[in-house]
């Protein structure tokens, strides 16, 4: 499988990365190089093989369903580029 | 007076406890060394001398009171991927500009609890994506090693290039690092240092900036096998904040050094003999086999038939997980924001400006392979192949193999801005051909220096172990180290 310019632009849009025409065109070549490299996986017979979900057989540990953390609003917004009274500020999304 | 930065952790520990030196003296020696060398090496992206001195003062106090921890007064460098409270933590990316976490990663907290001293944060490939440290927003790191008779700058490997270079250039006593596809073992090999990626789940991933969560693991880079054993002992723990961390006791790894290899079976996988591999790498491998045989180990040929598929499967799984993990960098909660005409425009401009080329490339691949219509063909297929890769190892271990010996890298350190590697991303990816299988199977892997090539550059061997059997790796690596000796670069910086 290979990607064309339109697909690269669509994927960039999905990934929320702005790309110029020139970048999209360069990426098309690079992505096709990588996709060509991974293509060899299709020759592996995986009939009856389960996809890996965990490298070590482990039971997920669970904790009590209680509040054990919180009241850190100041710490949570401390690194944000724009805040107002412990809210993250973003450009207007509702007209 | 002898140069205190030349002491190994084990030697410094002895001198500190005998009160021949103080933690402040040791820390000051490193602070001075960093100040002098960092403009040439670029291993540190930020230094914390005041914090280091304050920590060393407390260490001296605890030593005087007989309350010394396992790493009391030992000055360490920390890869920029680990969250350190109030200190630069940016995964060497532009998109995390100004990020100073309000919390400490579990691994670094474990080190401070053991009495270690923080010297600063170490350079790395952006978001740990790379094999040369050239994708860092803070510029390339120079390898302390140069080819004989040459002034050309070489890469230290990656992604933990700053960690490896700092350890090799005596700019810290040891360093933290992380490994997703080879990022501890390959830079350790390029710099003549020892690096171990422990079993997945051995160290907590909490507070480590995530790249590919099913592959990422923390581990140390150190001057020798003993120091690596000392560091891993303090780094490893079970942690309620990382449900994939494993609740198994952490052994005293140092105690396994010096133990006999008699009765051990070392597997030699024929698939690691790849086309175009330099003769010197093959010779090094044979030398390693001979050393282990001399030490009483039994050498057995094994087959790991799915080896060649590990790298292509990795380049689906790792970018897929990365594209998901890196979705959080949206210009809202931390780091860089580039304003746009609406919120989507702001996201797109922020991510376009904040991520470097290699990171964008991997997010794009990951987004593509996870997108509707391609998931089964790529991601699901790769996860099935991963099951087969792990099964190869299980069959070998079930047949009585205790550890596996392979080369660590397909070459010695290459030049900074190598045109051949820069022009084709896949060529750079091939750097991880021997190391990536270990991450795919979640196993422990250790790289230990074993010799120099014809250019006088270090080469390493890799040992792969059973899950949670890091002790066998330390024991075996120690035998190789005893036979090969240690390798130190000639100082030019």
3D structure, described in words:
The complex is a heterodimer of chains A (95) and B (493). Chain A is mainly alpha-helical and 95 residues long. Chain A contains three helices and two strands; from the N terminus they run αααββ. In chain A, a hairpin with a 2-residue loop joins strand 1 and strand 2. The model of chain A has no long low-confidence stretch (mean pLDDT 93). In chain B, helix 7 runs antiparallel to helix 16 and helix 9 (310-325) packs across helix 12. Chain B starts with 8 loop residues before the first helix and ends in a 9-residue tail after the last helix. At the A-B interface, helix 1 and helix 2 of A face helix 9, helix 10, helix 11, helix 12 and helix 14 of B.
Keywords:
heterodimer; A: about 100 residues; mainly alpha; two-stranded antiparallel sheet; about 5% strand; B: alpha/beta; eleven-stranded mixed sheet; 16 helices; about 40% helix; about 15% strand; globular
Query: What's the overall average pLDDT of chain B, rounded?
Result: 97
State the end-to-end distance of chain A: 42 Å
What structural class do helix, strand and pairing data of chain B support?
alpha/beta
* Share in helix of chain A: 25-40%
The average pLDDT value of chain A, as a whole number, equals 93
Rg calc of chain B: 21 Å
> Major sheet of chain B: order of its strands?
1-3-2-4-6-5-10-11-9-7-8
Total helical elements of chain A: 3
The global form of chain B is globular
- Based on DSSP secondary structure assignment, what is the total number of beta strands of chain A? 2
